[in-house]
């Protein structure tokens, strides 16, 4: 089993990223061969300050290691270090339907937020994401619920490539956590908690101080009711139940039973303490790891070397199959 996933080095990563994605990456190390990529080329599809982007790439690297990724047991690298991703995205553009790209919800959402320029990069982002995964012939892609459409697209691209050029790429499966696949913004529980948009006050960052986490959770928007249970008209409470269950590794029904008859205040207090306790060790390890930038760079460079070995083999076969470049090795 080969597992691949990417995460953006934008902003500070949040609780949704942690339970939806990062935690699955850590599990993946034990279940198979984990390959994890910090996707700086995806980040530049919206405006970034160049110096800050480099800083944030180190932040994200340190967060991932602090959360439990062990560069000795997985491959952890920076997307732009492995040129095969961009080359493969171009080659795969030949088997990607424009109409399919045009249906991507995330492009529509993100393009609406752009004030200056809606870049072509933002539009073709899912194609680069397909190349990221397909270059490694990964079987499984751990992601949050918001990535379902992009996963379907990459499956279609792989299948179309295989139909046209022979069975060379692996059609991967998305892997979504059973609980916590879509954590919502605490101030606006109809909107996904996101790195780049939504209320800051409603976004719990992995590196937030305990007091700040408590404050954000205590001021989470709820409803005028009193019952701690999930429901279509109870988006805020539903989200808090989901958060608590995700970090405890239990089913939401268990939390509903436990807090039957409790008020929202007590319930929020319990969620806040659980989140604080959950994030504290990551924040502590992060503080130890982050200052060693040379060490982080060395880790990324070693990861890129291992990644390139796998990706360049796929690329050689794809080029050969498509008739691009000089005749060479057979796949
Ligand atoms: P942006 O909103 O700018 O895309 P992001 O918060 O989605 O940023 P990414 O680096 O794009 O951050 O996503 C990393 C991983 O986290 C992806 O697998 C994504 O599906 C997952 N993820 C993002 N937000 C959530 C969320 N609210 N709940 C669960 N998983 C999430
Ligand atoms: Mg995202």
Summed up:
By secondary structure, this protein is mostly helical. The chain has helices at residues 15-31, 40-43, 50-67, 84-93, 98-101, 105-113, 120-134, 148-165, 210-218, 235-248, 252-258, 264-289, 293-322; strands at 2-7, 33-38, 74-78, 140-142, 173-175, 184-185, 188-192.
Question: Any descriptors?
Answer:
single chain, 331 residues, mainly alpha, two-stranded parallel sheet, 55% helix, binds adenosine-5'-triphosphate, binds magnesium ion
Structure, described:
- The chain is mainly alpha-helical and 331 residues long.
- 55% of the residues lie in helices and 9% in strands.
- It contains 13 helices and 7 strands.
- Strands 1-2-3 form a 3-stranded parallel sheet, with helices on both faces. Strands 4-5 form a two-stranded parallel sheet. It has a two-stranded antiparallel sheet with strand order 6-7.
- Helix 3 packs across helix 12, helix 4 crosses helix 7 and helix 7 packs across helix 8.
- The chain is globular and about 70 Å long.
- The two termini are 21 Å apart.
- The model has no long low-confidence stretch (mean pLDDT 96).
- The chain binds adenosine-5'-triphosphate and magnesium ion.
- Adenosine-5'-triphosphate (ATP) binds next to helix 1.
């Amino acid at each position: 089993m080969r597992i691949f996933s990417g995460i953006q080095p934008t902003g500070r990563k949040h609780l949704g990223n942690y339970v939806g994605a990062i935690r699955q990456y850590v599990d993946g190390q034990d279940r198979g061969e984990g390959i994890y990529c910090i996707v700086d080329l995806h980040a530049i599809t919206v405006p970034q300050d160049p110096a800050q982007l480099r800083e944030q790439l180190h932040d994200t690297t340190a967060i991932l290691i602090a959360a439990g990724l062990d560069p000795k047991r997985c491959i952890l690298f920076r997307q732009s270090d492995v040129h095969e991703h961009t080359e493969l995205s171009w080659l795969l553009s030949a088997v990607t339907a424009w109409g399919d790209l045009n249906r991507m919800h995330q492009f529509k959402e993100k393009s609406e937020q752009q004030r200056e320029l809606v870049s072509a990069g933002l539009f073709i982002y899912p194609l680069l994401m397909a190349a990221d995964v397909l270059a490694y012939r990964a079987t499984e892609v751990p992601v949050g619920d918001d990535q379902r459409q992009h996963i379907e697209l990459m499956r279609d691209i792989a299948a179309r490539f295989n139909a046209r050029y022979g069975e060379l790429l692996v059609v991967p499966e998305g892997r979504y956590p059973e609980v916590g696949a879509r954590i919502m913004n605490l101030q606006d529980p109809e909107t996904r908690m996101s790195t780049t948009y939504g209320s800051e006050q409603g976004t719990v960052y992995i590196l937030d101080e305990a007091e700040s986490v408590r404050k954000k959770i205590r001021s989470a928007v709820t409803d005028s009711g009193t019952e701690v249970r999930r429901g279509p008209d109870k988006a805020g409470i539903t989200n808090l139940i989901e958060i608590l269950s995700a970090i405890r590794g239990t089913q939401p029904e268990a939390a509903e039973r436990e807090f039957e008859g409790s008020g929202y205040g007590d319930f929020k207090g319990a969620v806040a303490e659980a989140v604080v306790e959950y994030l504290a060790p990551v924040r502590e390890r992060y503080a130890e790891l982050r200052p060693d930038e040379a060490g982080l760079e060395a880790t990324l460079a070693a990861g890129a070397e291992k990644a390139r070995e796998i990706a360049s083999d796929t690329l050689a076969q794809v080029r050969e199959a498509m008739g691009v470049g000089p005749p060479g090795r057979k796949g």
